[in-house]
Write a structure and sequence with these properties.
The complex is a heterodimer of chains A (324) and B (254). Chain A is mostly helical and 324 residues long. Chain A contains 17 helices and two strands. Chain A starts with a helix and ends in a 5-residue tail after the last helix. Chain B is mainly alpha-helical. The chains are: A mainly alpha (324), B mainly alpha (254).
């Protein structure tokens, strides 16, 4: 099972989102368009548009009118990836060379800013104050989360609370906004929209924890990027927090010694990946992700029992078991 | 060049500046940004000053105009931070500098959006996002020209022109100016921005002389006011650099 199969019921709409994205760049200068198309063709799960479309099914409008909103959220996500790649000096994403590698850091940054503004322009068309307010708060928090991540890199004394707060800002807020805004744009009841927002938040948390687990255990080819990326950046994720809290002193000393070096080699990182993967950290982290999946499922109980709710339920179950 | 305008709106501009500094201090360590990227005050205040001056010229500086001036200050700061991105590939200290610069810029852009929503200025979301799009399209093209060893100043000049035109338009619109006045001020802002861009980049003036003339033509049709005089003063100050004087009314007819 992969996420594409779960999105089968909205396959046509997701294709329309891609078409809309391509169309929205038609009048842009070729220089900007080529970078954008490269990124678009590299693929991606299109999770944010998918959640927007699925949530809109609880309202009473034609899915066609939700396509621009779903595309706008994908643009916001793409903008954040473009900037992340510069921040992390990443060379590959989704198995393809990153925009910064192909076009340079500056270009990646400018395209990201352009996309963010283009997304807001599209969202403005909905003339919906609530959607704007939700995204405005989320985008501020996303930036704060990123700043916090950089500021706390190589700081080994972090606890789970710091971590959860950080990933909430980094990942789950935008997914929550996609779910809630999709429902609001479709005219769904506020209670339903809020339940969907909470579902999105919990799914986002579970998704990010799983992502952080995969940084230790995934198959690089399937993941589309090298494992141990977070470690290399000095970012403390849940498996590492577990090791620092429950691991033996010699393991902790070894990790700090290796990661504290001026130049950390790929071999060093892979060594630590093996150490962490060999502990209970992965199971523990999966357990935490499972708790968030459980909370997401609880929110679905407040929604009408229909095929969309069923799809959202399947997605929740899948998140915790995904391998890439 | 901005002395007179800064003096006229000193309380508003001081409040705007300190708000931006507070945001950076709270979230991204303003001292870090200040130490690494000192921007002169005139550069920072150019857009807010144009906005307030236009509002005052049309009617008066109302709260909306001040809020928009503050948003323009954030927007200008954000784009400048991304513009001067250091090459952080080398030392780790440089890398952290790059990371913080990018994130501080992102934060300010988000604050622009947040303020638009918070102040109920959503009617200005479309013009402001269009401006951000245009600025970054030009930046990307400028970056490309730089890499190709081609002239890139015209992109920089266009950024100055678009931003200044928008600032004047937004100020005039917020002060409920007539369509005629609002559009005139956009034109004045645009040409003033071209001239400022030419001055900042050191580009040859010959190619842009029409902006000098057009700016005066548009200024002349505005009602006489101290604010119009400030705009004229700004123009004359720019012209001094190229030995240009205010064109006479008959110049175009002869």
């Amino acid at each position: 099972m992969n996420i594409g199969q779960l999105f089968k019921p909205i396959e046509k709409e997701l294709q329309k989102v891609d078409d809309y994205l391509i169309k929205s760049f038609q009048d842009t200068h070729e220089r900007l368009r080529s970078g954008f198309l490269h990124m678009l063709k590299a693929g991606g799960k299109r999770m944010r548009p998918a959640f927007t479309i699925l949530a809109s099914r609880y309202g009473g409008v034609d899915s066609e009118s939700i396509i621009p909103l779903a595309a706008a959220f994908e643009m916001v996500h793409m903008a954040s990836l473009l900037h992340d790649d510069v921040i992390d000096s990443s060379d590959t994403r989704r198995g393809e060379p990153t925009i910064r590698l192909l076009f340079g850091n500056e270009y990646s940054l400018y395209l990201g800013d352009f996309l963010f503004a283009a997304a807001l322009n599209i969202i403005d068309g909905y003339k919906n104050h609530e959607i704007n307010n939700l995204l405005a708060v989320a985008s501020m928090e996303m930036c704060r989360g990123e700043i916090e991540e950089i500021a706390s890199s190589h700081c080994w004394q972090q606890n789970m609370r710091n971590y959860l707060y950080r990933i909430k800002r980094k990942t789950s807020l935008l997914i929550a906004v996609c779910c809630q805004a999709g429902a609001l744009a479709a005219g769904a009841e506020h209670q339903v929209a809020k339940a969907l927002g909470r579902y999105g938040h919990n799914i986002g948390m579970a998704f990010q924890i799983t992502d952080d687990i995969l940084d230790f255990v995934a198959d690089e080819k399937m993941l589309g990027k090298p494992v141990g990326t977070d470690l290399l950046q000095g970012v403390m994720t849940l498996p590492l927090i577990y090791v620092f809290k429950y691991g033996d002193d010699s393991t902790k000393r070894e990790i700090i010694k290796v990661l504290g070096q001026k130049a950390v080699s790929r071999e060093d990182v892979l060594g630590i990946v093996r150490i962490v993967a060999g502990t209970e950290a992965v199971n523990y982290s999966r357990g935490i992700a499972g708790k968030f999946v459980g909370k997401a499922l609880q929110q679905l109980e407040q929604l009408p029992d229909n095929t969309t709710t069923d799809t959202l339920r399947k997605i929740a179950h899948y998140i915790n078991t995904r391998e890439y | 060049m901005l002395k007179q305008a800064i003096h006229t709106f000193l309380p508003e501009l001081t409040a705007i500046e300190s708000k931006t500094h507070r945001i950076l201090a709270k979230n991204a360590g303003f001292a870090f940004i200040e130490d690494n990227y000192p921007l002169d005050r005139e550069n920072r205040l150019w857009l807010p000053a144009c906005c307030l001056l236009s509002a005052k010229l049309v009617k008066d500086v109302n709260i909306k105009a001040v809020q928009l001036a503050g948003i323009l200050h954030l927007l200008n700061y954000a784009s400048r931070l991304h513009w001067i991105l250091p090459d952080g590939e080398g030392k780790s200290a440089d890398r952290q500098k790059t990371q913080m610069t990018i994130l501080a810029g992102d934060l300010l852009y988000s604050q622009v959006y947040f303020d638009i929503c918070r102040y109920g200025l959503k009617q200005y979301l479309a013009p402001l996002t269009s401006l951000i799009k245009s600025i970054h399209e030009e930046m990307a093209l400028m970056d490309h020209s730089r890499k190709q060893n081609r002239p890139m100043r015209r992109h920089e000049i266009k950024i100055y022109a678009l931003a200044s035109g928008s600032a004047c338009f937004l100020g005039a619109h917020a002060a409920l100016g007539s369509k005629f006045l609002t559009e005139k001020l956009r034109e004045i802002g645009y040409h003033l921005g071209v001239l400022r861009g030419v001055s900042e980049t050191g580009e040859a003036m010959d190619e842009y002389i029409s902006s000098w003339k057009q700016c005066w033509d548009h200024l002349r049709v505005l009602p006489a006011s101290p604010e119009r005089d400030i705009f004229s003063g700004m123009l004359l100050c720019l012209g001094e650099k190229w030995g240009l004087q205010q064109p006479s009314l008959l110049e175009g007819c002869l």
